[in-house]
Amino acid sequence: MASRQATLKRRLPSWMETVHNQHKKVPEAVNHILCCPDEVCTEMVHSKLHPPAKLNQDATNVTHNLDIETSVTPSGWSFASAGTSNNTSSNMTAGEVIAKGMPLLAFKGRVIYSCHYDDCCCLCEEILSGLSESKKTPIGFDMEWPVTFQKGSSIKASLIQLCMSAEICYIFHVSAMPKFPVSLRKLIHDARILFVGLNIVSDMWKLERDYDVRVKPIIDRGSVIDIGKLANEKMKSSEHWSLDGLCRNVLRHRLNKDVELRCGDWNEVPLSNEQRLYAASDALAGYLLYESLKDNGS
């Protein structure tokens, strides 16, 4: 009887079992996005304004020197893997044990980082010029700012991350700029874009409070999709999701939620390679989760 009770305690809710058993493979659309050559993450740091051609050339010359192992899952996904550990604690829950064996979802494309006003404007204009006129372009949206433990205190957002695909992610270090870039404001208001992310509406309102970017029109016209709500609609659930929890249940990968990185100084200029990869991976997760969930029927 004791053994049966222990088994019952470890069982997932019925809707989670359905999700777990329904897709041993990730949806084909997302699988196609990530079936790309296994390359290290490249990035570009702007120190002054460059013409577009120079920007593209420089982007291929700077690479991360990160200690990351790569692995390919049975479905063909190429991800960075942190490996598994046999040193599991008896205090870990069943879910934590399962998650520990999952591969790490890490961004492996070009991370384009800008901490200068003019460069940010130039990059945003390039993004705008490449948007489709016939359909909305989904962009993984996220923000980072230093964690404060003082009640009632608020720190301005440091970064805005825009993940265009599994191949390219922009990180704009807005807290390092003298004012909020005009072209970035223009991009955020562009009706051709569909911003996707977890708790994204709250992030949008923070963006308005911190930088006086009007977000109500964006929200009202449906240009913002909360992937947590989308997941609950698809899974017929009422979970309060974390981004890592969604990745585990939908993408079968886990996120790096290292406390030192997550609670680090996001106002530091320039950001470290590890910080940039962390920020890009969060935005990528939002993008991939949206692509996966939208292709699954209710």
TrEMBL record:
GO terms for molecular function: 3'-5' exonuclease activity; metal ion binding; nucleic acid binding. It is found in: Nucleus. InterPro entries: 3'-5'_exonuclease_dom, 3-5_Exonuclease_domain, RNaseH-like_sf, RNaseH_sf. GO terms for biological process: nucleobase-containing compound metabolic process. One of its GO terms (cellular component) is nucleus. Belongs to the WRNexo family. Has exonuclease activity on both single-stranded and duplex templates bearing overhangs, but not blunt ended duplex DNA, and cleaves in a 3'-5' direction. Essential for the formation of DNA replication focal centers. Has an important role in maintaining genome stability. This is 3'-5' exonuclease. The gene is ORF122203.
